[in-house]
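Standup notes, structure subgroup. Blocker cleared on the LQZAQKY5 input:
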Amino acid sequence: MTPRGARAGEDAEDLDVEEVLALVRNSNGDHLPDPAARSQGGEPGSARTSPQPAPRHRATPWPEARALAERAGRNAARAARRDPIRAPLDTALGLTLAAPLDALTDLPSFDTSAMDGWAVCGPAPWHVRDEGVLAGHAGPAPLTDGEAVRIATGARIPPDASAVLRSEHGRTDDKGRLHATRDVIPGQDIRPRGQECRTGDQLLAVGTLVTPAVLGLAAAAGYDAVTAVPRARVEVLVLGDELLTQGLPHDGLIRDALGPMLPPWLRALGAEVTAVRRVRDDADAVHQAITGSDADVILTTGGTAAGPLDHVHPTLRRIGAELLVDGVQVRPGHPMLLARTTRTQHLVGLPGNPLAAVSGLLTLAEPLLRILAARPAPEPYTMPLRDAVHGHPHDTRLVPVVLRGDEAVPLHYNGPAMLRGIAAADALAVVPPGGARPGQEAELLDLPWASAGIGVCFT
Ligand SMILES: Nc1nc2c(c(=O)[nH]1)N[C@H]1C(S)=C(S)[C@@H](COP(=O)(O)OP(=O)(O)OC[C@H]3O[C@@H](n4cnc5c(N)ncnc54)[C@H](O)[C@@H]3O)O[C@H]1N2
Ligand code: MOO
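Run returned:
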C-alpha cells in the first residue's frame, strides 16, 4: 500500500494549488458570475450567438476526464479572480488559508504555571501566602525569597518565582511552612512566555486546509476569523418527473436518492451548496433553471442520456455551452459530462442512476471543486484486491470496497442503480479495463467520511 495524505514537494498538482491561491491573493475583485457573458451570448463563446449542434465527442478516458476537470477548475479560478474572504472561525472548517496564519500574540502570552501547586521563590522552606493565584487572574504580586503562593494550572507566574512545586510534591510542617519532597529544579513546571511562538511567527502557511486543530490554533493565537479561499457556490438541479421527496415508491414513482446525498457530499468537497432545485422533465424548465443560476458550478442529475426526456444535452447546445467532457470511459456513469456555460461557470451533468451519479461526482465534480477550493490533490494510493473483479472490456470500473487489514474487499450491489454497496464502502476501487485478479493492486478513491470522519468533513 502506498501512503495517503497530501502531496509534498513540487509536483504538478502542488503547482495547480499554488496557482489558484496566487489568483485568489491577487484578485482584482472581478466577481463571479458574469451574467453578461450569458446574455450577450459571448463566452464561452461565440457559440452562444450561433447555437449550432455541437459535435458529439468520443467518450474521454477516465484519467483524462479527471485531468480535464482540474483544468476547467484552473481556468474558472483564473477567469473569476475571486477575492479571499474573512471567515469567522465557526464558518471556516474545510476552507483553505489564503493568507499565512501569523501569531498575533506570544504563546503563551505570559509565564504560565504548568501544574497545580505552589509558585516558590528561593530554597525551601517557604512561607505560604494566604491568597492563591488562579487562571484568569490579573498579575500577582512578586514573590520574595522564602515565599510561596498556591497556584493553579494556567495561572500567571508571580514575578521572581523560581519554580512551581506540584501539589503532590509539597508538605506543610506543623509551623505551616512548605517543604519539597523532592529536588526543585529552577524553572520547573513554568511555561515561559513565547515558548510556542512569538508575535509575528508564521504558524501555518498559505494553502493549509482549515481543520479543527487549525481552528483551535487560530483562536489560541488571537484570531476571530481567518483569511481563506472562498467556497465555490454549487447549485444542484435534480431532474426527473418520476421522483418523490418523501414516503414509499408507488405507481412507477421512486424516491429521489440524490437530493439528500449530494449536498453534504459537496460540502465535504469544500463547496457551498446554494440551492437544491427539483426541475421538471421539460426543455424550457431545464433551460430556465440552468440559465437562471448564478452559481460557480451547476450540478445536474439525470437527463444526460439520449432519451426523449433527456434535456441536458439539448439545453447545453441551445445556450452555446462548450462541452469539455461528453461521456467518460467509466462504468458506471459513462454518460456524465462537463461543460463551460459562461466564462466563469461550469456545469457537471451527473447521470440519473445513483451509483453512476457518484461516479460522476468523483470523476468530474471532485477535481473541479478541489481546484476551486485550492485544496491539494490527495496522494494516490493502492491496495491489493482480496477478490477478482470482473472488468469492462474497454472502460475503467469504479467498484465500492471496504478496507480490511491490508486488502480491499470488493462489495456486491455495485450496479449503476444501486447505493447499497457504496453506503457500506470505505472507498471506490479503480478497476482497469479487463478486470483485476485477486491480489492485484488497485488505486483507491477515498470517500470523505472514511478518511476524515463525518463530523470533521461535513461542515
Ligand atoms: N439508449 C441508451 N440508454 C441509456 C444509456 C445509453 O447509453 N443508451 N445509458 C444508460 C446509462 S449507463 C445511464 S447511467 C442512464 C443515464 O440516464 P440519465 O442521466 O439520462 O438519467 P435518467 O434517464 O433521468 O435516469 C436514469 C435512472 O436513474 C433514476 N434516477 C434519476 N434521478 C434519480 C434520483 N435523483 N434518485 C434516484 N434515481 C434517479 C431514473 O429513475 C432512472 O431509473 O441512461 C441509461 N440509458
Ligand atoms: O454507466 Mo450507467 O452510468 O451504467 O448506469
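Discussed briefly. The longest strand covers residues 396-404.
Next: hand off to the docking folks.
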